[in-house]
Amino acid sequence: MNTPADTFLLFFHIERAGGTSVHDWLLTQMRGYYPLHTWYYWSNEAEHGISPEELARLARWTPGMSGAGGHTLKPWFDYEAGLKRATFRLTFLREPRARFLSHFNHQRMKMGIPWTIEQFAAEARFSDYQTVRLSGSRDLETAVAVIGTLDLVGFVEQLPESLRYLCAKRGWYERSVPSLNRLADVAHAFRYEDLTTSQQRLVDEANALDIQLYKRANDLWSPRLAKNAATGTTPMCTSSAQTLVAGSRARYRRVRRRIWSATTESLVHRMSAVPYPLRSDQPSRTSGSQ
C-alpha cells in the first residue's frame, strides 16, 4: 500500500478558482512541491499540456520533487505511467458565475484587455471553462467521470474544509487557511448582482455545463469534506513558532522555484516533444475582439 510520502501530488489548477492561494499553501506543506510555468497564453486548450514524458523528465532532473501543479497538467494524461509511481490527484472548483466574472475582471483589470461582458460571454474559449479543463472539451459526462476519479475535489467556497481533508489524507499538520485574491472586492470589478438581467442570462448560458458540473461535484464531495471536518482528527499546527518557520520555508521555496523554472524547467520544456510555444495569440489590448 502506498503511503502519502510515496505518492506524487498533482494539482490541476483551474484559472480563478483559488489556485494561486493553494499553490502558496502547498509550498508551506511540501518541500518538493513545484508550481509549473504556464507556457501558453491560452492554457485551457486540450493540446496545451505537459506530457507525462515531460513531467517525468522534470522529476528526474529535480532531486526531491514530490509534487507539481499548474494550468498545463491535464487529468486525461497517464502521469503515473510516466513517473512510475502512484499519484495523488486534486483540483479546486469555484461557483461558475463567480469564477467566470473573476476571469473577466482579471482579463480587463490585470491584462488590460477591454472586453465588454457581451464580448467575453460570446468568446467560446471562456465558456464552461471548468468542464473543458477536466474533460478536454465541452463534455459534461466526461468531466463528471473525472471528478469521480480524483483523490480530492475542493471548493473555493469550502476552502477550510477542503484543505483539512487534504491534510488528513496526506498526514499533514493543518496550517492557516490562505487568503484569496478576490478581484470582486476591488473597485470597478463586475459582480453577478451588478449585471443587467440580459447580461446575467449571457453569463448563465456561457456556464450552463459548469453549473451542472459544480452541482454534481458538490453532491459527491461536500458530504466527504463535511464528514472529515466533523471528525477533527487532523493534527493542528497551533504554535506561532511553527507557523513562522513554515512561512519562512515557503518564501525560500518560492525563490528556489523561480530559479528552477528559469533553468531546469525551461530547458526540459525546450527539449520536449511539444514545440516551445510563442505567445503571439494574445488578444489585442486595444480591442476585445479576437
Write the layout of secondary structure elements.
Elements: E1 8-12, H1 19-29, E2 33-35, H2 52-61, E3 67-70, H3 79-83, E4 87-93, H4 96-109, H5 117-122, H6 129-135, H7 140-149, E5 152-155, H8 159-170, H9 197-206, H10 208-231, H11 240-271
Parallel strand pairs: 1-3, 1-4, 2-3, 4-5
Helix pairs in contact: 1-11, 2-11, 6-7, 7-10, 8-10
Helix-strand topology string: EHEHEHEHHHHEHHHH
Give me the side-by-side strand order of the main sheet.
Answer: 2-3-1-4-5
CATH architecture: 3-Layer(aba) Sandwich
- The dominant shape is globular
The count of domains is 1
| CATH topology-level fold name | Rossmann fold
Going by helix content, strand content and strand pairing, the class is: alpha/beta
End-to-end separation in angstroms reads: 50 Å
Account of the 3D structure:
- The protein is built from eleven helices and five strands, in the order βαβαβαβααααβαααα.
- The protein has 290 residues and is an alpha/beta fold.
- It has one domain: Rossmann fold (3-Layer(aba) Sandwich).
- α1 crosses α11 and α8 crosses α10.
- The protein is globular and about 55 Å long.
- The N and C termini lie far apart (50 Å).
